[in-house]
Design goal:
Largest sheet: 2 strands, antiparallel
Shape: flat
Number of strands: 2
Radius of gyration: 19 Å
Order of helices and strands: HHEEH
Strand content: 5-15%
Strand order of the largest sheet: 1-2
Distance between the termini: 15 Å
Structural class: mainly alpha
């Protein structure tokens, strides 16, 4: 088994990432469409769903500053960086030696 066979190709990684994003958006839409803000639904004795909104980043960092577009820009920049690194890695391990 050579190095080439140990690595998954770029299109598969992008499909996996796209499916994760799609699943995230679908579950958010379901929650917004079926739960009121603050409503709690017990799924099991150890798991509950609750609709809650966070105005900031993690732990309400930047909360109240209306930093949505700042956070979008940071996310897009990091996404571009990750895709660039994936392309470089896939080219490195799939190029003929």
């Amino acid at each position: 088994m050579g190095l080439k066979s140990k690595y998954i190709n770029l299109p598969l990684w992008l499909i996996i990432a796209g499916l994760i994003i799609l699943l995230d958006q679908v579950t958010k839409s379901l929650a917004v469409g079926s739960l009121r803000l603050g409503e709690l639904v017990n799924v099991s004795s150890i798991f509950s769903w609750v609709r809650w909104h966070n105005d900031g980043a993690a732990f309400s960092l930047l909360g109240g500053l209306n930093a949505r577009w700042f956070l979008v820009a940071i996310s897009l920049g990091f996404s571009v960086f990750l895709i660039r690194e994936l392309v470089k890695t896939c080219l490195l391990y799939t190029s003929p030696s």
